[in-house]
Amino acid sequence: MAETPITPKQIKLEHFKARLLLFLICAIVILVASIIGLDSRVHAHHYKRFYVNTMGDTMWTLAFFAFYRFVFYRAKLWFVALITLDWAFFIETSQLWHPHWLDVIRSYKLGGMLLGFGFRWQDLICDAGGVLLGLFIFWCLQSKTEYQS
Q1: Angle of helix 121-140 relative to helix 49-71, nearest 10 degrees?
Q2: How far apart are CA 86 and CA 127, in angstroms?
Q3: C-alpha–C-alpha distance, residues 128 and 122, integer Å
Q4: How far is residue 108's CA from residue 104's CA, in Å, rounded to a whole number?
Q5: For a designed S-S bond to 22, which of 14, 91, 97, 145 qualifies (C-beta 3.0 to 4.6 A apart)?
Q6: Of residues 30, 79, 81, the one with CA closest to residue 59
Q7: 16 to each of 4, 28, 43, 121, how far by Cα in Å?
Q8: What is the DSSP string of 87-133?
Q9: Where are the domains of the chain?
Q10: Per residue of the chain (149 residues), what is the pLDDT tens digit?
């Protein structure tokens, strides 16, 4: 018996399913990272100082890793990691620069959460940890979120 050939319509459907699954996984990672990161800031008095000082930045970077994974869904994971780390380091080092207009943006809650307030060397380590966590999560799920032709 001969196998039935795969039609272009079936290929498009499988690609759509893989892309939808990737979108859902990215959305869940962003949501969970946001909840954990915000919780570490809002309820700081309940947690150890190390957790409070590191978790927000680590989860911020993990959320951006998931965002970039969705945007660059055809890219290799190492490329997503490199883009995320570049962006995170750029944001961290921009905290050394304080023009008035940027400080006005940082004075709003959302602007402060996205851009940060002050530079700390340990935040660069947290950013690297968030990228490594994102690499691990998406590497474990890679076979499920990619269409196998």
Answers
A1: 50
A2: 10
A3: 10
A4: 7
A5: 145
A6: 30
A7: 21, 18, 40, 42
A8: HHHHHHHHTT---HHHHHHHHSHHHHHHH-SS--HHHHHHHHHHHHH
A9: 18-144
A10: 567 777 777 778 888 888 899 999 999 999 999 999 989 888 888 888 888 888 989 999 999 999 999 999 889 999 999 999 999 999 999 888 889 998 999 899 888 888 888 888 999 999 999 999 999 999 998 876 665 54
Angstrom distances, CA of residue 130 to CA of 5, 17, 21, 23, 25: 43, 27, 22, 19, 16
Q: How far apart are the first and last CA of the chain?
A: 22
Residue 62 region by backbone torsions, left for phi larger than 0, else alpha for psi between -120 and 50, else beta: alpha
Residue 99 region by backbone torsions, left for phi larger than 0, else alpha for psi between -120 and 50, else beta: beta
